[in-house]
Amino acid sequence: MYKITVGILGMSCNMCESHVNDAVRRAFDVKSVKSSHRAGRTVIIAERAIPEREIRSAIAATGYEFASWQCEPYEKQGLFAKLFG
Predict the structure, then answer these.
(1) At what angle do helices 52-60 and 14-27 cross, to 10 degrees?
(2) Secondary structure of the chain: what % helix, strand, coil (to 5)?
(3) For the chain, how many structural domains are there in total?
(4) Which of 35, 49, 66, 74 has the fewest C-beta atoms under 10 angstroms from its C-beta?
(5) What end-to-end distance do the CA atoms of the chain give, in Å?
(6) pLDDT tens digit at each of 85 positions of the chain
(7) Residue 51's pLDDT is what?
(8) Contacts from 15-24 at CB under 8 Å and sequence distance 24+?
(9) How far out from the chain centre does Cα 80 lie?
């Protein structure tokens, strides 16, 4: 799994976050997506690494400005991961 952190400029409220989250879910098969207008970022958890250009295109379609992209391997943390990992 991968954790993709995308910097996004222009989000100013919870509806902006929802708009971006919905666009990401429509464009990609993701496990989770969470946006924060205060932090100016969206964090995506997905099975595959989503290329920067694909995310840039999906964000551009929302009207918000793509600012940055970071992709790193992700390992789920939790009780079972700690017990059986």
Answers:
(1) 130
(2) 35, 35, 35
(3) 1
(4) 49
(5) 15
(6) 999 999 999 999 999 999 999 999 999 999 999 999 999 999 999 999 999 999 999 999 999 999 999 999 998 776 655 555 4
(7) 97
(8) 16/64, 19/62, 19/64, 20/59, 20/62, 20/64, 23/58, 23/59, 23/61, 23/62, 24/55, 24/58
(9) 24
